[in-house]
Amino acid sequence: MLKDGYNREVNYLRVSVTERCNFRCQYCMPDKPFSWKPKENLLSFEELFLFIKAAMDEGITKVRITGGEPLLRADLDKFVAMIYNHNKEVDLALTTNGYLLKSVAKSLKDAGLKRLNISLDSLKPQIAKQIAQKDVLADVLEGIEEALKIGLKVKINMVPLKGINDDEIVDLLDFAKERGIEIRFIEYMENAMANSDIKGLLGKEILTMIKQKYKIKKIGREGSSPSFSYELEDGYRFGLIDPHKHDFCESCNRIRLTAEGFLIPCLYFDEAMSIKESVQNGDVEGAVEVLREVLQNKPEKNRWDESDNESSSRAFYETGG
Ligand code: SAM
Ligand code: SF4
């Protein structure tokens, strides 16, 4: 079992396999031209796996692959298979924008992927285009339907934005409800990369919209998840992630690995340590030492200050959200 310096059990590793993305969501990426880090800086799947395997042997039981857009990396199914074949009990999940999903969903499932979170911010083609800055909706919807058809467990993530998609909160809830899948509304988190005109809705504003159509009952948080569950009268459950009200730090069970090999103890904390040299030298013990040091230095609380967009200079598309 892995514990951090505050005696919290850490069993969840989020792995960003690329910072690159085929969308430019206004809440996540700068609208000014910017350059990606060179591809040579990326760790190979074999190198990432060397660390993940060691971390699983030390006590990681849940691995989520994210990005940037993880489906942009070729042969992702082979990476999924490496993790799954090491321990078939691992809770292996992926977060994707869904755009490239239709053609790879089956191979990912066959490789051992268990769960998928798909970001869907609008059901209107023009609004989806405005947010992602690309005409994306039709492909994303096809990706969702394919994932459901082949039996992957799907959740939808929506980030409600004032004056953009906040009139679609109930429509998206109904979209998920009709398909029997959970939707999670995520409060927009202010960050240095996002379009500065963007304003998000607070959790209570999101709930007010839903209450205009449905009676809702509070259920509670599931384990260490930042998502708080609510239930409609017919038993359908949805989630709300409201970091403006809760910091989730007390029960935080996660660490993050970037595509370049930085191990990050907290989303809103600039300090990180690299496992790159260790894995490139095949030095598994060295990588585990870095893991232990990062855990020992995991902060008790994050340093996020929503009024100060510079409170973390690291982009969500780099850390994987
Ligand atoms: N590209 C994939 C996707 O969009 O699902 C995976 C990476 S993305 C960084 C992971 C999650 O972070 C997505 O659900 C996205 O909506 C969320 N996200 C990104 N920027 C955010 C922000 N500023 N506030 C809240 N959620 C954000
Ligand atoms: Fe890309 Fe996901 Fe960020 Fe949108 S939220 S720009 S899809 S990484």
Summary keywords:
single chain, TIM Barrel, 31% helix, 10 helices, binds iron/sulfur cluster, 321 residues, binds S-adenosylmethionine, twelve-stranded mixed β-sheet, alpha/beta
Molecular structure report:
This protein has 321 residues and is α/β, with parallel strands linked by helices. It is 31% helix and 18% strand. The protein has one domain (12-319): Aldolase class I (TIM Barrel). A twelve-stranded mixed β-sheet has the order 7-8-9-6-5-4-3-2-1-10-11-12. A hairpin with a 6-residue loop joins strand 7 (216-221) and strand 8. The longest helix is centred in the first third of the chain and has 14 residues, at 45-58. The two termini are 25 Å apart. Bound molecules: S-adenosylmethionine and iron/sulfur cluster. S-adenosylmethionine binds at residues 21, 27-28, 66-67, 69, 95-97, 119, 157, 159, 186, 188-189, 191, 194, 316-317, 320-321.
Number of strands: 12
Q: What fold name goes in the CATH topology slot? A: TIM Barrel
Query: What is the residue-mean pLDDT, rounded to a whole number?
Result: 92
CATH class descriptor name: Alpha Beta
3D shape:
globular
Short description:
By secondary structure, the protein is of the alpha/beta class. The chain has helices at residues 45-58, 76-86, 101-111, 125-132, 137-149, 169-178, 203-211, 276-280, 284-296, 316-319, and strands at 12-16, 62-66, 91-96, 115-119, 153-158, 182-186, 216-221, 228-232, 237-241, 254-257, 262-264, 273-274. It has a twelve-stranded mixed β-sheet with strand order 7-8-9-6-5-4-3-2-1-10-11-12.
